[in-house]
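Quick illustration, no need to memorize.
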Amino acid sequence: MVDQAIIEVVHQTLVEEFELSAADLSAAVSLYEDLGLDSLDSVDLVVALERAVGFKIDRVADEERIRQVRTLEDLYGFVQAKVNSSGKQA
C-alpha cells in the first residue's frame, strides 16, 4: 500500500512543475495520454521527484522499472519503492 504522503508529493510535484490541475490527478490517470507528458517531461519529473523526496534515481539500475511507469498508480509505487529502499520518508 502506498503512503498518502507519497501520493501528495507526486501530485504536488506534477501541479508545480507542469501546471496541472490537482483535480485531474488520480491513480488511474495516464501520464502520457491523459496528462500529455512526453519523454522530456519524464526526465523533468524524475529530477523534480528526486528533489522533492530526497533520493537519487539510478537511471541504469532503475531504467526498466521507469519504463513501466505509465499511470500515476505506477508512479506512486515506484516512488514508494525508492523511499522504502533508501530508508527516507516522503
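Residues 4-20+28-86 form a domain with the Non-ribosomal Peptide Synthetase Peptidyl Carrier Protein; Chain A fold (CATH 1.10.1200.10).
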